[in-house]
Amino acid sequence: MMEEPSAPQIVVETQTVDPPADDHLLNLKALTEKLRLETRRPSYLEWKARLESGPGPEQTQMEENVEKVEAAAENKLTSDPLKRFKNMEEVLSWIRRELSDMRRQDQLLARQLMRLRGDISRLKVDQTCQLHRRMLNDATFSLEEQDQLSELLCEAPLEPGLGLSAPLRLIGVTKMNINSRRFSLC
């Protein structure tokens, strides 16, 4: 018989200095080095090749754009509004004016919010009143229908099947208890 080839065995050498147990990234990197693992993803290989080849035209253009943005940021920092004042009194008066303007804006916003809150609560009350009005109209309509039906039933001869059953009468249930409805405007 032929001998089956055995699976390759991986020998992992242990280091004398172990990384801290809580650093999982270092453990993973050490394990990939020991096992000589490398990524074969095309995107990673392309990125690595571009990085090793040196700066390309896109990279130099990006660096120029970054320099322009940094220069503009420096100009903004140097055009500080405080540099236009001659002394500290002017600066303090400017700050006081800004603070009073901010306070006025805050008060205006607070008034607007209070007005909105009042409008919302008024709309809620109106909506609730309309809902209760509909309920009352429905109840009135159903009571009118019951009155019409009871008039029709009163004209017809009374039969024992139309009344309440004896067990219901024994526990105190009457036609009035069944047919009455109560609504409130709370």
Keywords:
single chain, mainly alpha, 6 helices, 186 residues
Summarize the structure in words.
By secondary structure, the chain is an all-alpha fold. The protein is 66% helix and 0% strand. It is built from 6 helices and no strands. Residues 156-162 have low confidence and may be disordered. It comes from Acanthochromis polyacanthus (spiny chromis). Pfam families: FAM167. InterPro entries: FAM167, FAM167_domain.
Task: Give a nutshell description of this structure.
66% of the residues lie in helices and 0% in strands. The protein has six helices and no strands.
SSE blueprint and pairings:
Elements: H1 24-34, H2 42-53, H3 57-78, H4 88-155, H5 166-170, H6 175-179
The mean pLDDT is 74
User: How would you describe the oligomerization state of the chains in this entry?
Assistant: single chain
- State the end-to-end CA separation: 96 Å
Approximate helicity band: 55-70%
Sum up the overall morphology in one term.
Answer: flat
The poorly predicted ranges are 156-162
Strand proportion, as a percent range, falls in under 5%
Major sheet description: none
Order of helices and strands: HHHHHH
